[in-house]
């Protein structure tokens, strides 16, 4: 019982250490190399399907930029001429620990920028701290719209569009592709299984809102499931969903949870009874190979990963070839997403240098250059058009899984792409208000 | 658990009352944790050893279950906390540092006084021999309860300060049992007996963790686990006993 | 008549899941008496002491202390009203020094409520403590850790800790068991003389008949949970039943 | 009807899985008085070893009977290998120390083994789905259930029966019970407690590993998935009574059913309800519902 007292001391000290750390920090001024922290899940259930491919995507592009071997127009060597020294770090352990590590990166390791973060929870946690510490941070994958809708951020950028588009595109896809002709009431009902945190909650909320606009006659179930992140066992949840009359099941599961869910529900004939809409389940398709059920509506959060494997854009072909050569696997969604963030940073650096009379730019100059930036990434166009020029929007595509027997590889069919103007509110409008007003001014073609 | 509770108290007060004053934050955290400790103490004081630990664990998991699932408490994401203020002025990092130091010193003085008091000595007495304490006319349960509330207050205060200094709270890194495990680890590493011991232990722990994290981001747990085992085996009394031994040797040499 | 007795038990009975450990115990104790409780192992002596001091709850019967019913009170309440005890195996705080042991005992006896948050080692208490240590002849050991002491020393400390609350009735459970023959009488001399000075009523459980003979006013003998003899030592030790069941020859 | 049967089946499957894992934990605690946090490592290692062997077998299209053989073999190998090392070289040196210290030591072991998995198996999730796929699903009162998951209940029943038989009908079982009841007396009676401890720890580890190995085909086996299991089986063991075999059975049934019911009726309360029950049981009956008897020491 003596522990109780003593342990509190420890945390006092901890707090003290962080404070001390801030005294010791001196801002660095490097010219020919820059140091950047790249954070993704290296351990834990999200490591394999998300974090590691993400890290590899970033690594590949960073090396290519350092060596000037990226295809044109990005073949200029370096980041504003400087080589990037990337420090990879593990994202697991929860938001508070990540904040502590972030402070460590900024205050002790004197990084020039931070790139990464997959979990929406972590982005929500890091966002305010990045602004407080005035550290340019480019989020790569996380998708919660709260990040910019709660407050504008001065130092935080996000190359990934938020979950609103993923969910709205999913709803629209269902409306466009499935709700044709005569349909029974039961098949017009929908439910969901989403992880119980920012990403899962937001994803389902916007899917529901989207359905109300696109399919006003469809009805939402009263018991959508929200199991805990990394729960791993979904027997009861699957039963509950099976008992539910709703035909459409929306899921924003990702990482090991998604694969576990697919495995457990597959043997129970779940995919034959229900139409499952997955907004981010691309990774499971490869790991399950030909076992992966056909007919799952699949999104990849942008023109990345599974949905662009056949895309012939030279940038895309370069990325896929290099990635396969180096890592013996297809690049997944997160590989693209991290690569995009690195690319955005490079372009902003280069532009800022140009504007600064070819002198190495300050952080503020880089931020100014990144604000509202519009650039072509591997397939799609990224435009920092929301959140006062900090939040990117881009097109989102959905398709239906179909195993390609000829190639012996998973494939996708009935691909549809929705442009950003169709699924995101105009700048300055809150997503929820916009959808509730019937999405005025949307352009979908 | 109280650590997390204190942290959440700070977060809640900001969310619903917009409270950011560092003093208020600290006292809210202490008071909230103290109240919770007082309430749970009525149940916990009846248990010893492993049952005490298990029940504490159960309570903290109940809290975790609530926090992780309740959306208005931020569920698994937790909540972010804005920088602290004092009388309406924003505290910088340095300001916060001074205040944390101030609170730490207050706490040290308080804990020192407690340990010197009869009640503080009673703790050792109880762990030595409960029957005797009862026969000396003092309720063992009451003494444990008081101690429990005090430690809850300290932990809550620590949590509140931690929340204020980090700017973020979430259940996984504040309430989960493995967090308590880490704190106990620091205690074991430091050894019992002096207020400065956990101080050194915590510094060393952070030191090891930071470097383990940097050197081997995929194997840092292993390094910490190994350190823990090594300490348990080679210096069961923790770092403090190591220092005491040094002192002892020095005295011997002087004689 | 009742008022004259400081301690009185009526029909006291205790059974552990069917096994009777004490039965029909009717004992009255006058103030200032020194009583020896004898009996073979398992005769119910310690059970008796445990019931009076609240460690065990009697199955039936009544215990009165100064005319007040104290059946089934908690140990600490017994201590508060002035019924204190020592133990067969000395119950002391092993990792602390002799002085700390006594200081804690004293501060608990003297202070209450918030006062307990004041430092333990104030001067007044320290002086008083030294006095008692002196009285019980363990002052030379006052800074030693208890676990390094001999059994006899521990017994003395145990008893002195029971005494600091100035009890009305003191129950000593085998004060000389585990104590070497040389120490035995020394201890009892110290204890009994100290207690006589304060006029405390003493009940002590004892195996050693020499000690019983030498110090007590009255002997109560137990056999299989029952009182078989209650008389002055000169008479009791010659009683047939006592010789047969207690003295064993 | 449909609802009740589905909740019941869900609960049963989850309970069976919890039972196997927590049985190992409770046996270890009952005999050795050690709360083994590293139990989760057995679970994880069992799952990993079974996964790689099943994937190997499945990719090369071996007879499907071999899957089950691989599952049990992995459990036995993990149990013996790590059980032996941990007991012999670490725990054995610590008996008699403060109970908290031992818990912490197992905590340290847990950390080490957890990262060892990363080093040995990498971070990619393994999906040994072959056995589960092969058995497919059947319809039970209108709801498809995975046959493989249902066999888990049979396995749990077998394990429970073997355990009961062993403890009550064999000489070894009696021996074990006497050690559980009173260690000192057993020593004085000439029982080699050291060996009993070693064997117990290995068996406990095997059960943990079996739990992991058997559920591996239904999940995505990835690093860090064992932590929740440890806590959940703690809850089971505490509810049932630490060290009690029937307690583990009842405890896992309670937890399994409650959780299934919560998921169907009030998904938000799923986690909360389990720990709340745990806390309530501890408050009312701190030894758990089926605590083994304690020798009286005067």
Model description:
The complex is a heterotetramer of chains A (445), B (255), C (249) and D (298). Chain A has helices at residues 2-24, 47-67, 95-107, 120-133, 146-149, 163-178, 198-214, 235-243, 255-266, 270-273, 282-288, 314-327, 333-355, 363-370, 420-423, 431-436, and strands spanning 33-40, 83-90, 113-116, 137-139, 156-158, 189-193, 219-220, 248-251, 275-278, 297-299, 374-376, 381-386, 391-393, 396-404, 409-418. Chain A is of the alpha/beta class and 445 residues long. In chain A, helix 2 runs parallel beside helix 13, helix 6 packs parallel to helix 7 and helix 13 (333-355) packs across helix 14. By secondary structure, chain B is mainly alpha-helical. Chain B folds into 2 domains: 1-175, no CATH class; 177-255. Chain B has helices at 2-17, 22-44, 49-69, 93-116, 118-128, 130-135, 140-166, 171-174, 177-190, 196-215, 220-234, 238-254, and strands spanning 79-80, 85-86, 89-90, 168-169. In chain B, the strands form 2 sheets. In chain B, strands 1-4 form a two-stranded antiparallel sheet. In chain B, strands 2-3 form a two-stranded antiparallel sheet. In chain B, a hairpin with a 2-residue loop joins strand 2 (85-86) and strand 3. In chain B, helix 9 (177-190) packs parallel to helix 12. The mean pLDDT of chain B is 76. Chain C is of the alpha/beta class. Chain C is built from 9 helices and 10 strands. Chain C has helices at residues 45-52, 75-81, 98-110, 123-135, 151-163, 181-198, 209-215, 233-236, 240-247, and strands at 5-16, 19-30, 34-39, 60-65, 68-69, 83-85, 169-173, 201-205, 218-223, 226-231. In chain C, the strands form 2 sheets. Chain C has a 6-stranded mixed beta sheet with strand order 6-7-8-3-9-10, with helices on both faces. In chain C, strands 2-1-4-5 form a 4-stranded antiparallel beta sheet, with helices on one face. In chain C, a hairpin with a 2-residue loop joins strand 1 and strand 2 (19-30). Chain D has one domain (17-225). Chain D has 12 helices and 2 strands. In chain D, strands 1-2 form a two-stranded antiparallel sheet. Classes of the chains: A alpha/beta (445), B mainly alpha (255), C alpha/beta (249), D mainly alpha (298). At the A-D interface, helix 2, helix 8 and helix 9 of A face helix 1, helix 5, strand 2, helix 6 and helix 11 of D.
């Amino acid at each position: 019982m003596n522990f109780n007292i003593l342990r509190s001391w420890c945390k006092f000290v901890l707090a003290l250490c962080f404070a001390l750390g801030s005294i010791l920090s001196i801002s660095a001024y490097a010219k020919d190399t820059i140091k950047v922290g790249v954070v993704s899940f290296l351990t834990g259930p999200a490591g394999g399907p998300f974090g590691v491919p993400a890290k590899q995507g970033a690594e590949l592009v960073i090396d290519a930029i350092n060596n000037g071997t990226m295809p044109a127009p990005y073949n200029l060597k370096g980041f504003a001429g400087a080589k990037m020294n990337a420090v990879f770090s593990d994202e697991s352990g929860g938001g508070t620990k990540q904040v502590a590590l972030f402070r460590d990166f900024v205050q002790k390791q004197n990084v020039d920028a931070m790139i990464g973060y997959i979990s929406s929870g972590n982005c929500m946690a890091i966002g305010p701290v990045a602004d407080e510490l005035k550290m340019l941070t480019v989020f790569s994958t996380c998708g919660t719209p709260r990040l910019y809708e709660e407050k504008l951020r001065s130092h935080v950028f996000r190359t990934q569009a938020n979950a609103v588009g993923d969910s709205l595109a999913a709803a629209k896809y269902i409306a466009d592709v499935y709700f044709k002709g005569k349909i029974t009431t039961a098949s017009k009902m929908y439910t969901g299984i989403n992880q119980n945190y920012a990403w899962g909650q937001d994803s389902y909320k916007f899917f529901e809102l989207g359905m109300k606009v696109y399919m006003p006659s469809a009805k939402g179930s009263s018991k959508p499931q929200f199991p805990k992140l990394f729960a791993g066992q979904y027997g009861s949840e699957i039963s509950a969903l099976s008992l539910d009359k709703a035909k459409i099941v929306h899921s924003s599961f990702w990482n090991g949870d998604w694969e576990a869910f697919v495995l457990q529900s597959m043997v129970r004939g779940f995919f034959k009874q229900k139409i499952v809409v997955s907004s981010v389940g691309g990774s499971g398709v490869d790991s399950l190979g030909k076992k992966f059920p056909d007919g799952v509506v699949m999104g990849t959060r942008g023109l990345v990963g599974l949905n662009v494997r056949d895309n012939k854009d030279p940038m895309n072909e370069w990325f896929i070839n290099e990635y396969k050569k180096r890592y013996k696997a297809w690049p997944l969604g997160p590989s693209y997403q991290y690569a995009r963030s690195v690319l955005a940073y490079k372009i902003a650096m280069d532009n800022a240098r140009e504007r600064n009379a070819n002198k190495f730019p300050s952080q503020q100059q880089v931020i100014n250059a990144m604000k509202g930036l519009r650039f072509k990434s591997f397939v799609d166009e990224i435009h920092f058009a929301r959140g006062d020029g900090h939040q990117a929007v881009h097109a989102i595509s959905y398709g239906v899984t179909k195993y390609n027997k000829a190639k012996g590889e998973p494939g996708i069919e009935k691909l549809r792409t929705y442009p950003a103007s169709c699924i995101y509110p105009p700048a300055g409008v809150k997503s929820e208000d916009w959808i509730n007003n019937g999405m005025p001014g949307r352009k979908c073609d | 658990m109280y650590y997390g509770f204190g942290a959440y108290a700070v977060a809640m007060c900001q969310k619903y009352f917009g409270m950011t004053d560092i003093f208020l934050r600290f006292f809210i955290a202490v008071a909230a944790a103290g109240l919770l400790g007082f309430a749970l103490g009525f149940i916990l004081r009846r248990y010893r050893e492993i049952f005490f630990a298990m029940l504490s664990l159960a309570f903290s998991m109940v809290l975790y279950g609530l926090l992780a699932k309740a959306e208005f408490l931020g569920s698994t994401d937790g909540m972010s906390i804005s920088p602290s203020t004092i009388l309406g002025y924003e505290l910088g990092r340095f300001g916060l540092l001074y205040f944390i130091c101030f609170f730490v010193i207050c706490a040290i003085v308080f804990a020192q006084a407690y340990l010197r008091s009869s009640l503080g000595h009673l703790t050792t007495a109880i762990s030595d021999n409960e029957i005797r304490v009862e026969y000396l006319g003092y309720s063992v349960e009451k003494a444990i309860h008081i101690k429990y509330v005090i430690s809850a207050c300290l932990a809550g205060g620590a949590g509140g300060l931690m929340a204020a200094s980090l700017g973020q709270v979430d259940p996984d890194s504040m309430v989960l049992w493995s967090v308590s495990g880490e704190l106990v680890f620091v205690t074991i590493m430091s050894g019992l007996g002096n207020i400065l011991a956990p101080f050194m232990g915590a510094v060393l722990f952070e030191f090891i963790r930071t470097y383990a994290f940097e050197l081997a981001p995929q194997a840092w747990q292993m390094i910490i686990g190994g350190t823990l085992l090594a300490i348990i085996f080679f210096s069961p009394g923790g770092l403090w006993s190591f220092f005491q031994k040094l002192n002892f040797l020095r005295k011997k040499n002087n004689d | 008549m009742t008022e004259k007795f400081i301690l009185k038990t009526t029909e006291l009975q205790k059974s552990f899941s069917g096994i009777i450990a004490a039965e029909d115990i009717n004992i009255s104790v006058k103030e200032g008496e020194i009583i020896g409780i004898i009996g073979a192992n398992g005769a119910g002596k310690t059970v008796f002491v445990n019931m009076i001091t609240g460690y065990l709850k009697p199955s039936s019967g009544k215990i009165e202390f100064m005319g007040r019913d104290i059946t089934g009170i908690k140990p600490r309440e017994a201590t508060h009203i002035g019924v204190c005890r020592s133990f067969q195996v000395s119950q002391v705080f092993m990792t602390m020094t002799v002085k700390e042991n006594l200081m804690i005992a004293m501060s608990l006896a003297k202070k209450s409520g918030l006062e307990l948050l004041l430092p333990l080692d104030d001067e007044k208490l320290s002086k008083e403590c030294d006095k008692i240590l002196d009285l019980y002849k363990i002052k030379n050991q006052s800074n030693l850790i208890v676990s390094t002491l001999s059994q006899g020393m521990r017994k003395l400390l145990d008893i002195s800790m029971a005494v600091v609350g100035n009890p009305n009735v003191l129950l000593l459970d085998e004060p000389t068991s585990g104590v070497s023959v040389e120490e035995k009488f020394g201890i009892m001399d110290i204890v009994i003389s100290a207690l006589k000075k304060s006029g405390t009523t003493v009940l002590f459980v004892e195996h050693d008949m020499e000690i019983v003979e030498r110090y007590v006013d009255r002997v109560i003998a137990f056999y299989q949970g029952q009182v078989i003899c209650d008389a002055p030592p000169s008479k009791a030790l010659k009683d047939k039943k006592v010789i047969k069941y207690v003295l064993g020859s | 009807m449909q609802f009740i049967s589905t909740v019941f089946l869900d609960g049963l499957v989850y309970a069976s899985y919890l039972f196997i894992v927590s049985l190992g934990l409770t046996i270890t605690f009952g005999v050795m008085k050690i709360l083994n946090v590293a139990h989760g490592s057995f679970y994880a290692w069992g799952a990993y070893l079974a996964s790689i062997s099943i994937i190997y077998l499945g990719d090369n299209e071996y007879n499907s009977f071999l899957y089950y053989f691989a599952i049990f073999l992995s459990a036995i190998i993990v149990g013996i290998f790590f059980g032996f090392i941990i007991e012999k070289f670490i725990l054995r040196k610590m008996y008699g120390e403060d109970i908290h210290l031992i818990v912490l030591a197992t905590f340290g072991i847990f950390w080490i083994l957890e990262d060892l998995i990363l080093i040995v198996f990498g971070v990619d999730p393994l999906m040994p789905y072959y056995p589960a796929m092969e058995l497919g699903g059947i319809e039970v009162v209108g709801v498809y259930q995975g046959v493989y998951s249902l066999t888990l209940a049979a396995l749990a029943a077998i394990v429970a029966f073997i355990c009961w038989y062993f403890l009550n009908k064999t000489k070894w079982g009696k021996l074990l019970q006497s050690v559980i009841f009173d260690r000192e007396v057993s020593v004085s009676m000439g029982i080699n407690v050291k060996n009993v401890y070693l064997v117990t720890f290995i068996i406990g580890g095997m059960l943990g590993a079996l739990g992991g190995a058997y559920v591996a085909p239904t999940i995505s086996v990835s690093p860090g998935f064992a932590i929740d299991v440890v806590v959940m089986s703690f809850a089971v063991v505490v509810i049932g009574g630490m060290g009690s075999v029937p307690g583990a059975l009842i405890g896992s049934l309670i937890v399994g059913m409650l959780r299934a019911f919560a998921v169907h009726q009030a998904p938000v309360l799923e986690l909360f309800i389990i720990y709340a029950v745990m806390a309530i049981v501890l408050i009312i009956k701190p030894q758990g519902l089926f605590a083994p008897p304690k020798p009286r020491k005067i």
